[in-house]
Amino acid sequence: MNIQALLNEKVSAALVAAGAPEGSPAAVRQSAKPQFGDYQANGVMGVAKKLGTNPREFAQKVIEVLDIDGIAAKTEIAGPGFINIFLSTAWLAEQAESALADSRLGVESAEKQNIIVDYSAPNVAKEMHVGHLRSTIIGDAVVRTLEFLGHNVIRANHLGDWGTQFGMLIANLERHEAEGGDISMDLSDIEGFYRESKKLYDEDEEFAQTARNYVVRLQSGDEYCKEKWQQLVKITLEQNQRNYDRLNVSLTDKDVMGESMYNDMLAGVVEDLKAKGIAVEDDGAQVVFLDEFKNKDGEAMGVIIQKRDGGYLYTTTDIACAKYRYEQLNADRVLYFIDSRQHQHLMQAWSIVRKAGYIPESVSLEHHAFGMMLGKDGRPFKTRAGGTVRLADLLDEAEIRASKLIEEKNPEMSAEEKAQIAETVAMAAVKYADLSKHRTTDYIFDWDNMLAFEGNTAPYMQYAYTRVASIFAKAGLDTDNLDGAIIVTEEKEKALVSKLLQFEEAVQSVAREGQPHIMCSYLFELAGNFSSFYEACPILSSEGETRQSRLKLAALTAKTIKQGLSLLGINTLERM
Ligand SMILES: NC(=[NH2+])NCCC[C@H](N)C(=O)O
């Protein structure tokens, strides 16, 4: 149950009953401090101002008609007219009880929507690099959260699999084949292969001519070129899949909807935009002038959708792609997890999409942008030699570092167990470090921080889970089979229960805002609440119904942490 939403509904109804206009916002939020109650409604002041009445008096009227008997123990008016709501411990205990009995931990399913999530989107014949890492792990956490809420999610890996570069890549692939080498070996360093192709293209005129010829042939559907192109796509996908699997990212080959998929739509889109008078010819190219974007002379900015030579652009593809997602996939919502540097590109493409009426306003197109990944020195994240960091190398290093850490902590464990723990911790650390930061800020990649056992980190959260789980292991108890009832008496018990019952709010916020750091902060706070509870309220050494109740609180904590981490794509360990 979403308590905030419930209270918001209750207070909204009371506002109207007290004379406020229909639809006045109740603005119920979690309280910043316990002395302000569990929740606070801040909507009264705005309404009183509109009505020209005294806010404290109006708040009093609202409280009189507010129907929260049995839910709240107490309400009070504070400051200029805030309503502080103190929840009843008996009611909280009841809610916690039903959350524990429910495999969804009491989280209600949302009204089902078709949601397309565009994420990862690396490029063919290029290594996945750290920039794609952010899109991949943030997007995947949001996908898991949306699915948990019951939405129909379509994972769209907008692979960069089209463009004029394929001419030189095909020509070079052919050259390698002619030389009789082992192609899969030759392409194991796909980035090197790309550089080599580029060099040949720049330096060898005959090669460049073949390459240009292949571009034309590929675009007109020539079988030979298509087959070679497919080979390149396949090799890239295999390499990416290894990264996805290691990172426990839920993408597979089936989710690839690359740029090439929209190729057949592009001519039609340009024709249609011309017919609608949205695109006009300018110096031989097809251009859309957008008033809402100004160029440096203060004039409407021109966005090219077809070049003079007939070629289409990245923007043209994204226009067609958005159209497709609405028309063919019936999207209710489309989320794009792309680097903030592509913001203007997306805004322009979508502005054209809306002008052309390809998607109704009721369907949201959302750019969930993120900042750059920086090194510890605050500069773009690079290898020591100054090159781009390959994702696979980064993950290898994470495992090496985590192994050392686990070795120090648990020298007595079997090598096999240590290796398994190290791998789980390593991938979690890389993901969690990224997920826990506000998405839009640049993110500083720091091994020591992400692998620390203190603070808002993966090892800390994984260990928090293991610690609760070990209580049950030690007592030989099963979290699914506990007798007795939850009784909330101690202050720390109440704080823990309140936090546990905010899980749904966290899940829904992540789904709404596409910001997984909300879940990380929630879990970190929950772990903190559990620690304070555990210190103040002994579990196994207490007796009778107190012991049973506390065991149940611990069980719900373990399940909530595990579920929350799993929505982030992070695995837990029973021992670590
Ligand atoms: N619909 C989109 N434009 N998705 C993002 C594509 C990202 C692009 N392949 C890149 O590496 O920068």
Automatic annotation (TrEMBL):
Subunit structure: Monomer.
Positions of short motif 'HIGH' region: 122-132
Catalytic activity, reaction form: tRNA(Arg) + L-arginine + ATP = L-arginyl-tRNA(Arg) + AMP + diphosphate
GO biological process, one term: arginyl-tRNA aminoacylation
Annotated protein name in UniProt: Arginine--tRNA ligase
EC number: 6.1.1.19
SUPFAM superfamilies registered for this protein in UniProt: Anticodon-binding domain of a subclass of class I aminoacyl-tRNA synthetases, Arginyl-tRNA synthetase (ArgRS), N-terminal 'additional' domain, Nucleotidylyl transferase
Main EC class the enzyme belongs to: ligase
Domain DALR anticodon binding per the UniProt entry, residue ranges: 461-576
Coiled coil: none
InterPro entries, sorted: aa-tRNA-synth_I_CS, Arg-tRNA-ligase, Arg-tRNA-synth_N, Arg-tRNA-synth_N_sf, ArgRS_core, DALR_anticod-bd, Rossmann-like_a/b/a_fold, tRNAsynth_Ia_anticodon-bd
CC per GO annotation: cytoplasm
Alphabetical list of CDD domains matching this protein: Anticodon_Ia_Arg (cd07956), ArgRS_core (cd00671)
Entry keyword set: Aminoacyl-tRNA synthetase, ATP-binding, Cytoplasm, Ligase, Nucleotide-binding, Protein biosynthesis
GO molecular function terms attached to this record: arginine-tRNA ligase activity; ATP binding
Family: Belongs to the class-I aminoacyl-tRNA synthetase family.
Domain Arginyl tRNA synthetase N-terminal: 1-87
Location of the protein in the cell: Cytoplasm
Origin species: Veronia pacifica
